[in-house]
Write a structure and sequence with these properties.
- It contains seven helices and five strands, in the order ααααααβββββα.
- The chain has helices at 2-21, 27-30, 35-46, 54-74, 81-89, 98-110, 177-196; strands at 117-124, 134-141, 150-153, 162-165, 174-176.
- The protein has a five-stranded antiparallel sheet.
- Residues 16-25 have low confidence and may be disordered.
- This is Lipoprotein.
- It comes from Silicimonas algicola.
Length: 198
């Protein structure tokens, strides 16, 4: 049974890479972002609640789109997210897993030292056929919980920024990153202790 699973895994990887080799670079990923897109994200940030500074919302929107574009080029994104993940895991690409995107977006936004906005990280635990967790950066009004914020997810569309409120983003069940990591650490410790008891 283990040989069968290994063969199936290799076959899946080869199929994904074959299908991926049929596509070219998506010009959207390296094209500059238009003012309409920036205005849409700025409006979504301002809609998070009163007290958000207009200049900060504009800067957050511009940085989010600019950083997404820079990372798509730096990560050499030419494929769908799962194909790119496979390439990263095989050592064919330097970065580009969802947590890379989330980490690099968080770093760029935190560096802005916003006074009226706050940056969070969240993880949606593996509840899919591929057993893959998904990480993202979230922006909210300062002092608000991450659940009241906007998901900023460039991974989902392979280098094109996806944003939506956490509540409306029904594709994923977002949980604060620290909570997920603590759960995983406890589960790992429980498994370790179970092995030692035998």
């Amino acid at each position: 049974m283990t040989m069968y699973r290994a063969f199936r895994g290799v076959l899946l990887i080869l199929t994904v890479l074959f299908v991926a080799s049929c596509g070219g670079v998506d010009p959207q990923k390296s094209a500059p972002v238009g003012e309409a897109q920036v205005a849409e994200l700025r409006a979504a940030i301002l809609a998070l609640g009163p007290g958000i500074d207009l200049e900060e919302a504009d800067r957050a929107a511009r940085v989010s789109f600019a950083r997404t574009r820079e990372l798509a080029i730096q990560y050499q994104i030419t494929d769908s997210p799962l194909v790119h993940n496979t390439k990263v895991n095989m050592g064919l690409r330097p970065r580009g897993l969802c947590w890379h995107w989330a980490e690099d977006m968080e770093t760029a936004l935190v560096a802005q030292n916003f006074k009226t906005l706050e940056i969070h990280r969240a993880i949606a635990s593996a509840d899919n056929p591929f057993r893959i967790d998904h990480s993202t950066a979230i922006i909210s009004r300062r002092g608000d919980d991450y659940r009241q914020g906007l998901v900023l997810d460039p991974w989902r569309k392979g280098g094109i920024l996806h944003f939506d409120t956490v509540v409306a983003d029904t594709d994923y069940d977002w949980v604060a990153r620290d909570v997920v990591l603590e759960r995983k650490a406890r589960a790992k410790e429980t498994r370790r202790r179970a092995k030692l008891s035998f």
